[in-house]
Fold these 2 entries.
Entry 1:
Amino acid sequence: MNIILIETLEIQDDRVLLADRRAKHLIKVLQVQLGDTVRIGIIDGPKGCGKVVAFCARFPFQVELDVEFAADMAEKPPIDLLLALPRPIMLRRIFSQAAALGVGTIFITNAQRVEKSFWSATLLNEEEYRPHLLQGLEQAVDTRVPEVSIYERFKPFIEDVLPGRIAQYSHLLIAHPDAPGTLKTVITERPGRILLAVGPEGGWIDYEIARFAECGFAAFSLGERILKVDTAVVALHGRLSERRESFS
Amino acid sequence: MNIILIETLEIQDDRVLLADRRAKHLIKVLQVQLGDTVRIGIIDGPKGCGKVVAFCARFPFQVELDVEFAADMAEKPPIDLLLALPRPIMLRRIFSQAAALGVGTIFITNAQRVEKSFWSATLLNEEEYRPHLLQGLEQAVDTRVPEVSIYERFKPFIEDVLPGRIAQYSHLLIAHPDAPGTLKTVITERPGRILLAVGPEGGWIDYEIARFAECGFAAFSLGERILKVDTAVVALHGRLSERRESFS
C-alpha cells in the first residue's frame, strides 16, 4: 500500500478517521508516529497528504489524519483494454495489474473460445472486482479507478456498443498471433487514446477478427511466442507505453 | 502446453514414449488420434514434430511418437535479467513469465531491502525452479531454458562475478524510480544484448545504485507509478523488446 485511498464521504472537516486494514497498515507496516505525514488520495479524486494527529496502536487499530489535497487529479491513462473474458483467476490478476499500470477503461466481452462457465464467476460483480482495482491503485500511487464495462454477448457489443465508443480513439489495435505485422507496423505517431483488444486463450476466431476489422481495428502479432493473457496484457501495455512515449 | 518438451535421453531410434502429464495432456486436452502430429521440442535443443503412432487413452496414459527435429535451435533471447531476490511467490511467477517472454540468463543476488528469510526458500533449488521455467517454455513454444545464476552475497557478486559477465552486453540498464530519465534516454540504437537490473520491493539503496553505476549501468525510471516486481519485469521486457524491434 503506497498510498492510502479514501472515499470523499470519509472526510469530515479536513479530518479522516481510519479504523480498518488501512489503519493497521499505517501502524504495523509504516509504524507511523504523531506528526508523520503519509500519502493519501481520494478515490477518483486528487492525491494529497495526511498528517497523523491521533492513533491507537493496538486492536482495534485507529489512525486519525489531518488531510489536504491537490486541486487537480491525474489525467486519465491513454490506454484502454478490450478483453475476451479471461479465466477468473487470471482476470483478478489483470484487474490489479491493469490498475497499477494505468488503464482508463476495461471492456470485457464474449468470444467463441471463452469457456461459458467463466460468465458465472462472482468476480464479475463490482463489489468483487473493485477491491482488486483499488489494490492496483494503492500499489501504483494512483486514485483513478479504471471503468469496467461488461457485455456478455459479443454481437450486441460489437454492433451497438463499440461503434459509439470508438470515435475517441486514435488507435484501435487487436493482438492476434496470425497477423502479418508487428506493433510497429500498425501504430503511427498520432497522439490520442489507444484501445487494445486481447483475445481469449486460443485466440479470436476468424469471424471475430473480421468484425473487429470492420470496426477499424488493426491486427498485429507479438511474434511466435504464445503468451498467457495476463502476461500478454502487461507486456503489451509496456510496448504501447514505450511506443507512445517515444513519440513525445 | 503449446509444445511437448522432452529430454534428448528420451529419444530412442526416433521414437519417444510419453507416460506422464505430457501423455495425459495429449490425450485429455488435445485428444490426439493415431497419425496426428504435435509440436515437440528437445529441452535446450531444436523444435520438431511428433507423429502419434500408439497411445493408451486411459490411466496410465501413454503416447508413443515418431519424432523429427529441425537442424538448428532458436537463438538465445537478447535480454537478460538481474534481480534482487524477490518474494518466493513472486519469483515463481517471474520464472515462468520470463521463460515465456524469452530471457537468456536470470541473475539473482542480494540487496539491502531483500528480506533475509527469502534466502531459505526451497524455490532456489534447481529441481524446484526448473519446472516453472519449463512451464513458461511450454506456454511460449520455446525450448531454451533460461540460465539461472544465484549469488547470495551482493559484494562478491558485483565485484567478482559481474565484471566478467558484462563485456557481452551492449546495454547495462537498471530500473530505479529516482532516476531522472526514462528508458528512451538510456537506450541507443546499438544492437547486442541487454542486461536489465530490477530491484527489490522498496528499491535499491544508494550504495547499490552507486556500485551498479561503477559497473557501467545506466539508471532509468518508469515514471511515477510504483509497480510490483513481477509486473515491472514483464512491462519492462515489453518496453525493451519494443525499443529493440523498432531499431531493426
Note: Helices of chain A lie at 21-29, 88-101, 126-140, 154-165, 183-186, 206-214, 229-247.
Entry 2:
Amino acid sequence: MSGNKEFVKEITPQAVDFSRWYLDTIQKADLMDYSPVRGCIVFKPDGYEIWERIQAGLDRRFKETGHRNAYFPMLIPESFFQREKEHVEGFNPELPWVTEAAGEKLEERLAIRPTSETMIGHMYSQWIQSYRDLPVLINQWANVFRWEKRTLPFLRTSEFLWQEGHTAHATEEEARAETLQMLDIYAEFVETEMAVPVIKGQKTPLERFPGAVDTYSIEAMMKDGRALQSGTSHYLGQNFAKGFDIKFLDKDNQLKYVYTTSWGVSTRLIGALIMTHGDDRGLALPPTLAPIQVIMIPVGPPKMREQVMEKFDPLFADLKAAGARVKTDLREETPGWKFNEWEMRGVPLRLELGPRDVQNNQCVLARRDTGEKISVGLDEAVSRVQELLKDIQKNMFEKAVAFRNQHSHLDLETLSDLEKHIAAKQAADEVVGWALLGWCGDNACEAQIKETTKFTARVIPFEAPVQKKVCAVCGKPAQHSVWYARAY
Amino acid sequence: MSGNKEFVKEITPQAVDFSRWYLDTIQKADLMDYSPVRGCIVFKPDGYEIWERIQAGLDRRFKETGHRNAYFPMLIPESFFQREKEHVEGFNPELPWVTEAAGEKLEERLAIRPTSETMIGHMYSQWIQSYRDLPVLINQWANVFRWEKRTLPFLRTSEFLWQEGHTAHATEEEARAETLQMLDIYAEFVETEMAVPVIKGQKTPLERFPGAVDTYSIEAMMKDGRALQSGTSHYLGQNFAKGFDIKFLDKDNQLKYVYTTSWGVSTRLIGALIMTHGDDRGLALPPTLAPIQVIMIPVGPPKMREQVMEKFDPLFADLKAAGARVKTDLREETPGWKFNEWEMRGVPLRLELGPRDVQNNQCVLARRDTGEKISVGLDEAVSRVQELLKDIQKNMFEKAVAFRNQHSHLDLETLSDLEKHIAAKQAADEVVGWALLGWCGDNACEAQIKETTKFTARVIPFEAPVQKKVCAVCGKPAQHSVWYARAY
C-alpha cells in the first residue's frame, strides 16, 4: 500500500543471500505480508492477482478435459484419517484440530484438511454405484493447512491455497492415463504461461505421496540452483477405494473397487515464478501471467506534459483496445523512480513518451527481461508492443531453460563426485545445481545421498538426457537415472 | 451422479410441504449432498457451477468499481474478538476453535473465521499510514464457519462460501457512499442475472451486524412467502478502526481513525435462486445464470435417428458458435423421461428435433418458464433461441415481481391486523407473505411483533410503497415503514 521510495535499493542481491533476496523482493513488491498467526501469510492484491491468473489458466484446462469443480467440507473427522495407514502417518504430525465449537467440546476431533482424499473418498463411496457413474472427474479450489515448523512465504505456509483434483475410474489403465494427462497439463501450463521450464517424471518411493501407488511431479530449478516441486499427480490405485469402500457394479456384474487419482498445484507456484525469473532489480513477470503487461510513463519536463499527453492518451486507448493489460503512471515522482518501481514489480514492458519522442512521432519501449530500449514509430507502437510481449515470454522461458541446463550436471558418477562437486561450487560461491545420478532402486542408497549431501531424489525423469549405468552409492547396475538436488 | 429414473415423481409439491419440496429439489437436481460433518454440505458440480457463475458476475462488478481481491488467514486469535464488544458477543456463540496443532496444545485458541473484520482490521492497521494509502478497497472470496444449531442446505450451514469486501476510507461520507454503492451492485446483479427481485433498505438496530453503525440489506421473497436476506452491506463507522487502531495522517497533519465498511453475499444466494423460481417440476434457472441454457433432444423412432442427426448436429454447432450454452442428450432413455429430467434440473429451453420436424425444416422449442412449445424454422432457430432466452429471463423476473407484489400486504395497520392476517392465510393454506407496518423506532415494539407472530423486521425500505402513519404496536407516530416477514 504505502510508497516507500527506497524500495529498490533495499533488495539484497541474489549473490549475497538468495533467501534474503527472495524475502525482500516479495515484500517490497507488495505481494504478501506476515500475519499474527504462526506460519500464515496474507496474500496481498498484487500477489493474489498472480494466483487468480494461475487459477484462470488451469481452470480452463481442467474444464476442457472434462473436469468439473465442486466443494467439500474443510473439517475431517479424525476417524477418516485412520482408514488409509500411510496417509495418516504422513499427515498426522501436521494437522490442526478443532476440538470445541459453539461452546461445547466435540465428541470427535475434526482436522482441518491437509488434502481431501479422505473426505472425498467417503463421498465417492456414496455416489458411485455402477460403471455408468464412472469416471468421476472433480476438482476443488480450496484452502488447506499443514502446520509447518519452518515456513517460507508462498513455498511453505501453514495455510495455503490450492486445487486438488480427485478422480475415480473403472480401470487401472484409465486412472493411470488420467494421472499422466494431468501432469502434462501442469507442465504445459507452467511452461507456456509461467515461462518456467519443468522436468516431468516419477517420484521415488521415499518421496511418494502418503497413500499413493505412484507419484509424478514437475520439478523446476530456481535461480539458486535448488529444485522446487511445482505440481504433483498421484495414481492412488485402489488404496483409498479400499479404505473408503468405493465400489461399483461393473458391466460384467461384478462388484469392484474403483481406481482413483489425485493431483494438485498450490500457491507455491507463485514462489516458483519469482525465483525462476526474478533478479537483483526485483520481480520479473512473464507477459502471459503479468497483471500489468505495459506500464506507460510520460517523461520530459512537466511544462511540456500537456503536449505529450495529446499523444499519450490515444496510445493508451489503442493499447487497451488491442487487448494489452496496460497501465499509466502519472504520479509526481521522477521518471527514474518510476522506472525502478515498475521494474521491481516485474512489469515486462515499459513505454516512455517525452516531448522529443512526440516531435519524432515515436515512443521508447524498454524490456524488463533484457533492459534493451527500442524506439518505435507511434503508428506501429501497438503491433510492436504485441510482438515484444510475445518475444519477452519466449526469451524468459529460453533464459530459464539455459540457466537450468547450465546447472544440470550429467557428468557426476558417484556420491563422492557429488560431494566434491558441491564442495567446489560452494567454495567458489557458485550455484550448485542438480545432479543426474544412477540409482539401483534401493531406498538405502537414496537415503545415504540425502544424509551425506542434503540432496534428495527429485524425480526419475521420463526423458533422461543420458542413461546412467551404475548406482552412485553402491555401484550396482542402475535401474534409473535420477535427478538429485537440494529442494525447497 | 447416478441416474434415478424416478426423480421427478418424488419431489413433494410446494403446496404440500415447501421445506420438503426444497430439500427434494436440491437433492434430486444433484446440487448438493449431506456430509458426515454436522451442518456441512458438499457443493456438487451442478450446485457449485451456479456459485461459479454468481462469483464471475459479482467479481467483474467489484473489479469495475476499483476493488481488488486478496486472501487473509482463516484462523483468528481469540484476543482479536475481544477488541470490538458487540462483535464478540454476536459471533462468540457460533465459533469453532482450533486448540491443538501438530501434536501440541496452542497457547491461544484460534477461531475459524465467521467473518474477517478482526483479522483484516489488524492488517489494515499495519498498512494504512497516510491519507495517500486510502481508500483501501479489498475483497476476499473465502470459506467461513458459523456453528449453527439448525441448518438448511445453502441457506444456513456450518461452513459456507462467500465474499467479504472490506474497505477503509478517510471520511464518513466516502465510507457511506461505498456501503450504498455495494448494496446497489448486489441488487443490480441479483435482479439482472438471477432474475430475483429484491427490496433495498436499512436494517433496524436489532437486526444490525454485530459491530456495525448501520446495516443495509437486500431482501427477496421466496415462494413460500418468507423473506431471505440475500446480501448485506455495513457501514462500520470507526468501531473497528478504534478496536484495531487503524489510523492515518490526514492532509491537515492530524492523526485520525479511518471509516470502514464491509459487505458480503454467500452461497445462500443459490437458495434464493431455487426458492424464487422453482416449481413442482423442480428447479428453474434464469438463462443468464444457467450452466446449460438449451438442452437438445432428438425425438421420434430410433430407426429415423440418422436422418434427424443430419440436421441435429449442425444445429448444435450453430447454437454453440452463437454463444449459447447448449448440450445434447443422446442417451437411450425415452424423450419423455429426458424432458422431465431436464425440466427438473431447471434448463430454461428445450429443443426437440424429430423426423417430421426435419421434413418440415423446423424444430420445436419448449420453454421451462411457461411450458409453451413453439415450432420455429431451422433457418431462424439460432436467432429465435437467443430471443427466447432473453424473453425467459425477463419473464422469470416479472413473474417473481408479480408474486412478491401479490403477497406484499400494505393494508395491515396493527399487530392485531397482522395476527388475524396470518391466522386467516394459514387456515386457508395460503402464502402469508410480507406486511408493511408502521414503527415508532422503539426496539420493544419490534420485539413484540417477533414474539407474537415470529415476523421479524426485514428492512426499512428506501422506497416504501406507502408511508405508514402509526406504530403497529404502540400506536405512537411512525418513524418508519418497515417490511415484516418470517425470515430464513
Note: The first helix of chain B runs from residue 18 to 28.
